[in-house]
Amino acid sequence: MTSKIEKTVELAQTEGVETAFRFCLSYLGFRLFGRRLLSIEDICYQKWRRRNTPTEADFERMRAEVKRFDYSPLISVVMPVFDVDAAFLRRAVESVERQIYPNWELCIADDGSTRSETKAELERLSQVSDRIRIRFLEGNTGISCASNAAIELAGGEFIALLDHDDELSPDALFENVKLLNSHRDTDMIYSDEDKLDERGRHVEVFLKPDWSPELLLSNMYTCHLGVYRKSVIDVIGGFREGFEGAQDYDLVLRLTERTGRIRHIPRILYHWRHSPGSTASSYSGRGAGHSGMKAPAECSLKALREAMQRRGIDGRVEPGLFEGSYRVRPMVKDNPLVTIIIPTRDNLSLLEKCIRSVDENDYRNFEVIVVNNRSEKPETIEFLGRLASQKNTQVIAYDKPYDFSAINNLAANRARGSHLLLLNSDTEAVRPDWLTAMLEVAQIPGVAVVGSKLLYPDDTVQHAGIVLWHCGVAGHLHSRLHRDNHGYFGMADAMRNCSAVTAACMLIKKSIFDELGGLDPELPIAYQEVAFCLRAWECGYRTVYTPFSLLYHIESAVTGPRVDKPDSRVFQRKWENRCPSDPFYNPNFPRGSLNFRLR
Q1: Is the model's pLDDT at 17 over the cut of 80?
Q2: Helices 17-28 and 2-14 meet at what angle, rounded to 10?
């Protein structure tokens, strides 16, 4: 209860008394005219929508801009239909008819609907416009076959997928074609989305990151609105039977193996509807009606397993940490040697716990290099002497003022391993599989750096990835979120790409560390791991955060707070223009907040 009171006080200070009052009512479960009040997140979203939704004047400017487009491809909106409420179907079609961008067609395949109102509405629509093309299938074939039948009607260069009870925003196709005018080679576009509740209110907004291939291996995050180059869809064979309920996921996994020309529009262009049988309401819903359909979770696991086989990655796929999420577990091949680098200066009790975590981890092929940075206490010196006598352990001295980059570069030059693990001495593993979990992710082609989920001793999150520029130079995501909270759309508990991860526990392929010249010597105290991840990104490598490697981090217990103004200035000078925004944190979230929250 105390945390709720604290939350109310915080909201009163940051969002106003009205918002705090609504939060209290929502928490206590009161109903207004028989309907539950909106959550605090949805209240904030309502306010945000009022400020940010395009106005009619904005739409007029868009209509004028459309006339200036050099490139105006036909967009085929593809819609499979089965026994949908006629009113919802009508609204879906009307949302297409209201599009600012005029060069569209609507391709509908009815999958043997049995409801008379659905069939009647489809018959009416077939007479409305020659831009609406409808094919009536015999019997209920399933959503994959119905979608393919609708695609066969399409004459457009691109297809846009619309479910039969959802809606497009009026500017949806405009924003996609606007992007195509700037990036003509794009093969796949996805946007942000929200949901429509039973009263037609916009709720549960999902503001997404830019293209994140490892996040796609965790869940189908791109989802709606999806716009795809039809020639690529044709090459991969469209949707596949046997994946109903996860047919979009399977499609996008296969498509993104064919092309990397993928872009994200950070605008809310699609509105799911909370309705019976919809995945917006229930994860097990969409695609229902086909008697042979498997559960969507089972189909998603199948899609991921086949994706790994196509990509030549041996391993297994398991359910993730929350419903609708998954964990790919590539096999760690050839038992690579990992060199674990641990800088230390006294604080023996912390170092002992760290070494114990290393010794008790379930991956056994490792060596340890402890870098002694001017430890003075006799008990520390004695412990380091014992360590130095152990097999596969080195203790080396760095007898200069603390310089994180120099310390780790020195140790890396002594390393024999094919992977380097930079590890703070004030860390302690929660589970023994923490190193294995990192090595598994490092097996994915293109991944250079892997970071862990780190907790404060009170079981709140200290690190779940680093975001640039939104809260100072670089800040930690989900800070102070409880470890059992999955975070915004599961982001705290999903393997995903980040601009950077902390070097408190960071695995790097040694070949890439050497290729990039190690950590930046101009950043001795702070931001050197961020700069390293960005240099790797510039060279085409990816940084990945995994929640399956879980450790405690008693942050700054050894070195003090690593916030250094000279380093901050150096980092900004080097990177503010080269990387002006963070692609993995949606720009609609305000600066000053790193917990995926609108204000």
Answers
A1: no
A2: 150
